[in-house]
Amino acid sequence: MTFFPRVERWHIPETAFEESLREMAYDGSRGNEGIVLWLGRRHDREATVSHLVALRGAGVVKRPDLLIIEPWLLSEVTDVTIELGVALVGQIHSHGDWHGVDLSITDRTCGIAVPYYLSVVAPSYAMEPRTRMDDCGVHVYEPGTGYRRLSAIEIGQRLHVMTGLQVPLIIVGEESA
């Protein structure tokens, strides 16, 4: 048994994707990248997103072309995953129009790098509410290779956007006054 079992298919509730876009659009309206972490479970080569995590406070820096999450804030996220009995299975973050939906050098070298981690990049700071998964860059961290962007065909085969399932949004970090 491995700590990071192989994932060949991700199940993402449509409401989780929509709520993630709304959360990131808040930062996008201020001209900054945004991020939402996706928690869930892995089983039989599949991962299902069950919870969203929004990051707040001094532990996360959001700028026009940069996101920094302090290790202590990720440690708080870990505490939440343990309490809920889930794992960090992926994330979605936004880029401005001039950066596209590929992972940046910073994303590739300083981001979360664990096997079968899903990293989705939403365009236009997630400000377009009609954004679909097909409009995003979808990347998977593969052992021995690093992040690889999935083709449109692979997105259709490996990502299943589910309807009818609500997932909670959890705030981690301190709210600004």
Question: Short summary of the structure?
Answer:
This protein has 177 residues and is an alpha/beta fold.
Note down, in words, how this protein is organized:
Strands 1, 2, 3, 6, 7, 8, 9, 10 and 11 form a 9-stranded mixed sheet that branches. This protein has a two-stranded antiparallel ribbon with strand order 4-5. The protein is built from 4 helices and 11 strands; from the N terminus they run E-H-E-E-E-E-H-E-H-E-E-E-H-E-E. With 177 residues, it is an alpha/beta fold.
- Beta fraction of the residues? 35-45%
> Quaternary state, please?
single chain
The total strand number stands at 11
Helices and strands, in order, run as EHEEEEHEHEEEHEE
Could you give a short account of the major beta sheet? Answer: 9 strands, mixed
Number of helices: 4
Structural class: alpha/beta
Uncertain segments are none
